[in-house]
Structure formats: C-alpha cells, structure tokens
Fold each of these.
Amino acid sequence: MIDLHYWPTPNGHKITLLLEELGLPYAIKPVNIGKGEQFAPDFLAIAPNNRMPAIVDHAPEGGGAPITVFESGAILLYLAEKTGRFISPDRRRRVETLEWLFWQMGGLGPMAGQNHHFSVYAPEKIPYAIKRYVDETNRLYGVLDRRLADRDFVAGDYSIADMAAYPWTVSHERQGQNLDDFPNIKRWFDAIRDRPATIAAYAKGETVNRPAVMSEEDKRVLFGQTAASTRR
C-alpha cells in the first residue's frame, strides 16, 4: 500500500495519473494546503519543502522500512523505476523521458503556476507580470507542440513525462492559451484526457473536499509563506 499525501492540484494529479495507470493500491491522505496542513510536523517529516504531493511506500522493492518520497517528479521516477513501467529501459529513450520530465519540473509547471497566480489569484493585477507569464507559457506550449509534431507522446511511448506535463495544460484557457493554436498538443491532450486511468485519477480528485472558491485566508496561507512558515 502507498499513502499519497495529496491535494487536487496539477502536481497532485500527476501522481494519481501514474498510480491509476499502474493499478497500485494507494490511499489518499488529503493535505488541505489552503488551511496550512502542509506545515503539520508529521507532514514535514516526509515532505521537508512543505509542499504536496508526497508518498510513503509501505512495501518498497527489497523490503525493509517504508520509503518516503517528496517532489512530484521524484515520485514519478521512483514509481516508474519500482514497477519498470512508463520509463523505457533503452538508454536513449530513458534520457528523453528524463529531459522532458525535468522540462516540465523546471519550466512548464513553474511558469504556468506564476501565470495562474498573477492572472487569477494576485490581489493586484500587474499587466507586466501577467504578460510576462502568459507569454512564457505560450512559448513553452510552442516547444511542446513542436516536440509532438512527429510523435504521439513526448518520449515516444506514453511515459511519466506526459503525465507530468498533462495536468499543467488542463487549465490552458485560464493560462490564456488556445489549444487550436497548437494542433499537436490538442491531439496529445485529447488522447491523454480520454485514457481510463486519467478519468479515474481526476474522479479521485473530485472526492477531496476542495472549496469551489479560494478564500482570502486560503490565499494568505498559500501565498504568504516565508522561512518562518516551516517553524510554526
């Protein structure tokens, strides 16, 4: 059994996408990030960056004590290596998968996240910041669209690289992006959206009691963090 410390955000969805594809038994442990549950001492013990998702694998390969993993990219890689699925054993294909996994972790996720923040959540609408991140998101969509021009998925076969990127494109309209401008992404997006595991993963997210509208207090908790936050 795997404990998944989770909230239905793009980074959380990455892990349920993979777990549903793998068919591994897992239990969702909600971490209400708007209420500050990511700062609880028990959670910080497994996720020192006070961010979800994180997992506890109670049946690691080779036995022994449970293994904890934080950071969504590390979790995807850990589970793929544990099961031998969704990352190729071929050296060149494996490198491609890792390149695009890290591309998402270092590019698409952070830039789309800042896009969401300044376009949707920021109390002050700053035109320069909004344009900066909408434009950079657009550039990254262009990179992904070119990559998908001659292949179904980013590293050939469906992989953890696709599962990392897909949740960050679900909110494309809120990011100021039109998938009609990116036909290769649109084809890729539709193919992943219609997979049974994707449908099941997003249905799991609906079972978590996430408020429809983020309160001002939730925003304060999420966006007002400093080093002192982890010492609460």
Note: The radius of gyration is 18 Å.
Amino acid sequence: MNYRHHFHAGNFADVMKHVLLLQLLNRLNQKDKPYCYIDTHGGAGKYDLSKAPSQKSGEFLSGIHRLIQLTAQEKKTAPETVKHYLKLVEELRTQDGQGAYPGSPWFALKGMREVDRATIFEMQPDVFQLLDHHIYDKRAGLHQRDAYEGLLGVIPPKEKRGLVMIDPPYEIERQDFPQLIELLKNAYAKWPTGVFAVWYPIKDRVMVDRFLKKMANTGIRRQLVCEICVWPDDTPVGLNGCGLLVINPPWKFAEQARESLKWLAPYLKMHELGGSVVVKTTVGE
C-alpha cells in the first residue's frame, strides 16, 4: 500500500478525529470499570510536521497550525474538550519540538486511565517500527497485523467495555466501502455493546450517502454521524470534509461533538461556503 499518513498528519481531518476521540474516551472514563481501546490502523504514533512529507503536502497549515496560531482570547472561547486537545498537542510540542504532532495512539493513551488497556494494530513494517519506537506504555499492546482479520481476534476484550477506532487508508476501501461494512457487521455480531468509531473521507457525497444507507440496513442499532466539511460538497479538491460514524455513542457524546465541531468549523473552513457541520442519529435504538 502506498498510503503514508505523514503527508496528512495535523490536517483538518486529524483535528476533527482526535478531538472526537478524546471526547469518546472522556465519556468512557465516567464509569469506574476499566475498558479496552483498540486502534485498527495505528500509524506511526507521532509525526514531525517540520520534516519533508508534511512540508511537501502542507496540509497541517490548514489544520492544527491554524489553531496554534489563534490568540489566547480566541482559545479561551473553545469548549473544554477542544481546550484539552490543544493542551495535549502543546505538551508534545514542548517535549519533542515545535513540529511534533501526535497520532491517535498517543492521544488515546493520554485520554485513558491507568486501569485501562490499549491494543494497537499497524500492518506496514516500516510504519510499525516507528510506532514501536514512539509508543512505549505498559498499557499498550502493539501488533504488526492486518486489522481486517486481527480485530475479530481480539473482541470482545476481557474488560467487556471499550472503543474501537477504525481509520483505514481507503486504498482498498473503494466505492461505498464494502470491506468496511462487512468488518463492522462481523465485529458488531461479536461485540454488540462495544463502541465503534469509523472515520471516513468525504470526497463524493453520493458515495458517502450510499455507505451510510447500507450501514443503516445492516440492522446495527444506535448509529450517530458526525461530519465537518471545510469545502462545499461539489468542490473538486480531493477531500471536502470528513466524518465519524459512531456505533453505540456514549451518553451525551452527541451534544459534546456538536459543540466542538461548530466551534472548530469557522477556523478550519477553506471556503466561505465551507464550514458545515452535521451531527445526527441515522439509526436509533
């Protein structure tokens, strides 16, 4: 596979995904019992935005860079969940340098408690070596394994509670993502009480609508869609926006997600007609 997240680290889609990831973990933290966090495509764990891949794409400039450049007064207006995200980003920048940006595994381990546990998959050998170098935490088990077969082997976890973050490279997941739908159906059948969060790109609205309709027809209950579009839907730029499909969203997560995305949208939009936000339940109880 040719996908390398180094080119996209810190872009608007990363900002959206990581803010919502921290919110999901925060909601799970409200109960005393431990849980397991599972990341199906962990990536390198950390990224350096000052290095060639990120500098070549420049995507971070319209993502995390915009938020870092906000005034103290502007940051003060952010929801607490966004403030927490920015605080963690600044923590890593102070520790590793001003070009540092965390990946999902790093954010997750910061958002979890000591009693919780993580299982992180990454299939690409060179990226896994970076993950193994960057993530050293007794709570985390790292696996060089294809998540499409690995996930079903680790659920349900012994904790019985938990969150699965699914963010594939979308190289084989073409059209309306049939492989992803099949994985979710099988995973949900094994662990119907687990929380599943699936990040997806918005390049073609018709394709996304087909994906969400097919997901609604799976019989899986409690599906919540969170989307942010920084360009209008019909703009041919490659990535107009992104979404997070959450199965079994925790209590009050939808309200928090809506508040955070609405605050972020004006700062991340790339067009005067961009910056649209949708948070809606597509399948109820």
Note: The CA atoms of residues 196 and 282 lie 15 Å apart.
Amino acid sequence: MSRTIFCTFLNQDAEGQDFQLYPGDIGKRIYQEISKSAWQQWMTKQTMLINEQKLNMMNPEHRKIIEQEMVSFLFEGKDVQIDGYTPPEQSN
C-alpha cells in the first residue's frame, strides 16, 4: 500500500517512501517529507558525486560529505556541485 506525503522537495503531494531509508533524525525527516521521486533524484546526484569525488562509503568522512550534500539538496534547495559535470542544456 502506498502512502501519500507532502513532499517538501517537490512542493506537492506525492508517493512517500515505503520505509525509512536513512538512519537517525535525518532519516525520519526524509521518510516524512521526501517522496520516492525526489529520493530518486537524490540517488542520481549521489552516484555522480561518489564517482566524481571517488568517495568511499566505508569512510566516515566521506559519508559525512554525502550526508551534508544530501541535506542541502533535499531540504535547502541547493543543487549538488559536481566538478567536470555540465548539465544538459535546457531547451525552452
């Protein structure tokens, strides 16, 4: 059964996560406020970030970097800055 939440990232009602995907208070906030589609957008950014900066998720410092980027992306409206990546031109 899917649950609908108000996604603060998309600023609209959307399908919520099935379970808490991330530990702790940040994870609770993501579960309550971040929809599946917003989370997918983050996962794409996270993969690019890990590849670009050659981050190792076993390294606590690297996990801290990822967490900071995740919070600023999902909750503060900041895009992830990825060196050497140029987003495709938006056609109007």
Note: The CA atoms of residues 1 and 40 lie 19 Å apart.
